[in-house]
């Protein structure tokens, strides 16, 4: 872009920000109040953005309302955890019934076995599993299990991966990451992954990989990449851990089921506890058996809320009544169709904009390059910001970084509203989206 065009983009962005500030005084004052007790008024880094994040006051069905009373179609779906929509009657009923029987029972309960069995039936590679409170914990436990089971120390991950708040591999090394001995390989690069696995064959405990980089921009793993990881890890006796925290929703049994890949361990999270806090890790019987407390020298895995009845009850209700295998298939088809619609619209306008992703989880990018790795998605961040402010003004809520995760409650009307908003964005901002 030439200098006057760039100056125009700066001006458009500052005007959009000014309208946002004027329209959202209560969100601004909410942040100021929160700042008195929390650093930057924030307790979840991903939710913060300049000049201040929207403070949401409530949700119902497909909609969210912010502190200033604006209504949004919720296309973020709580970063995939909100699959069931807000206050689904099925989830509400399950939670209320569980509440009626007391919530902190301090013992094995009657629900955990049901949810574990349901998940194991859907994910045949998960012979056995254990629950945690989050996807982060699930990955921490899976890594610890891999190290204990193989008596090896190194873990391979990929550039741009996100496996939890202390397991992030996008950009510069995170000082809050757990201090495992990581090997960081490029995503979707079969030859390099094979080379590194072979070079570290004696020390490699596991390869941990997302079947689609989620936080890294919804960049799908190429099927040949995942099958090469399966093959190469087996050859050297390392474990393959699939982080399906985001991708589990792509079918009844996640992306592993779609691709026919059986990992040694799988990690889950997000919607699977009905939208309440949840995580799980599981896999081969012989590996999970190391946690069997009846065995001498069993590995420990504690956690006050691992089997909390609210997540268990909501999870069972969700999988039984709402996210059936048919519903999973339909949602993935719906997401694929929506992504195709957006991409066809952008390509028709020759706009440097596209969505990547799989099924109902997608990310908007401002480039027309083919995106196989996070660096391919490099773009002018001002375009991303402008898109976000424009969508908010249109009553469409999505992540500031461009993530969209469809909830089961999203219908054709909402999808049409998104398409119309994208079309207006393409019209209004055409000069900065020209190739
Ligand atoms: N793995 C992946 C692929 C994720 O997307 C996330 C959350 N965005 C996590 C792990 C961590 O899950 P949680 O936020 O529940 O700790």
Spans of at least 5 consecutive residues with low confidence? none
- Helical residues, percent: 25-40%
Discrete helix count? 13
Structural class: alpha/beta
Report how far apart the termini are. Answer: 9 Å
Instruction: State mean pLDDT (0 to 100 scale).
Output: 97
Number of DSSP-assigned strands: 16
Question: Beta fraction of the residues?
Answer: 15-25%
- Sequence of secondary-structure elements: HHEEEHHEHEEHEEEHEHEEHHHEEHEEH
Main sheet makeup: 7 strands, mixed
Radius of gyration: 22 Å
Physical arrangement of strands within the biggest beta sheet: 4-12-11-10-7-5-6
**Dominant shape:** globular
The bound ligands are:
4'-deoxy-4'-aminopyridoxal-5'-phosphate
Secondary-structure map:
Layout: H1 3-23, H2 25-34, E1 56-60, E2 63-66, E3 71-74, H3 89-100, H4 112-122, E4 128-132, H5 135-150, E5 154-158, E6 181-185, H6 190-199, E7 204-209, E8 212-213, E9 219-220, H7 223-236, E10 239-243, H8 254-259, E11 265-269, E12 279-283, H9 285-288, H10 309-322, H11 325-348, E13 354-358, E14 361-365, H12 381-393, E15 396-397, E16 403-405, H13 412-428
Parallel strand pairs: 3-15, 5-6, 5-7, 7-10, 10-11
Antiparallel strand pairs: 1-2, 2-3, 4-12, 8-9, 11-12, 13-14, 14-16
Helix pairs in contact: 1-12, 3-10, 4-10, 6-7, 11-13
């Amino acid at each position: 872009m030439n200098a006057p065009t760039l100056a125009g983009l700066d001006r458009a962005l500052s005007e959009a920000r000014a309208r946002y500030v004027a329209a959202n005084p209560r969100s601004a004052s909410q942040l100021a109040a929160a700042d008195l007790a929390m650093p930057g008024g924030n307790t979840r880094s991903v939710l913060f953005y300049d000049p201040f994040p929207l403070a949401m006051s409530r949700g119902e069905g497909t909609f969210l309302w912010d502190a200033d009373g604006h209504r949004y179609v919720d296309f973020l779906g709580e970063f995939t955890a909100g699959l069931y929509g807000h206050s689904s009657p099925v989830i509400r009923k399950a939670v209320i019934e569980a509440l009626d029987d007391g919530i902190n029972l301090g013992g094995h309960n009657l629900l955990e076995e049901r949810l574990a069995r349901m998940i194991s039936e859907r994910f045949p590679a998960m012979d056995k599993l254990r629950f945690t409170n989050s996807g982060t914990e699930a990955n921490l436990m899976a890594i610890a299990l891999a190290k204990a089971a193989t008596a090896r120390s190194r873990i391979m991950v990929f550039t741009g991966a996100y496996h939890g708040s202390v397991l992030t591999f996008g950009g510069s090394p995170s000082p809050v990451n757990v201090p495992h001995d990581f090997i960081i390989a490029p995503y979707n690069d079969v030859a390099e992954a094979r080379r590194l696995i072979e070079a570290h064959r004696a020390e490699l405990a596991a390869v941990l990989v997302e079947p689609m980089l989620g936080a890294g921009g919804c960049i799908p793993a190429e099927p040949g990449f995942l099958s090469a990881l399966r093959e190469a890890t087996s050859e050297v006796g390392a474990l393959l851990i699939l982080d399906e925290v985001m991708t589990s929703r792509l079918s009844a049994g996640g992306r592993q089921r779609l691709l026919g890949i059986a990992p040694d361990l799988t990690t889950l999270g997000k919607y699977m506890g009905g939208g309440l806090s949840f995580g799980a890790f599981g896999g081969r019987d012989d590996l999970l058996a190391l946690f069997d407390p009846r065995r001498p020298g069993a590995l420990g895995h504690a956690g006050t809320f691992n089997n909390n009845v609210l997540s268990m009850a909501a999870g069972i209700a969700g999988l039984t009544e709402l996210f059936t295998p048919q519903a999973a298939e339909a949602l993935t088809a719906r997401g694929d169709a929506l992504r195709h619609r957006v991409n066809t619209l952008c390509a028709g306008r020759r706009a440097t904009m596209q969505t990547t992703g799989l099924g109902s989880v997608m990310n908007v990018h401002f480039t027309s390059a083919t995106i196989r790795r996070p660096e391919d998605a490099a773009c002018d961040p001002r375009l991303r910001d402008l898109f976000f402010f424009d969508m908010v003004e249109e009553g469409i809520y999505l992540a500031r970084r461009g993530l969209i995760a469809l909830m089961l409650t999203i219908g054709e009307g909402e999808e049409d509203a998104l398409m119309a908003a994208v079309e207006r964005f393409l019209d209004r901002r055409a000069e900065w989206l020209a190739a």
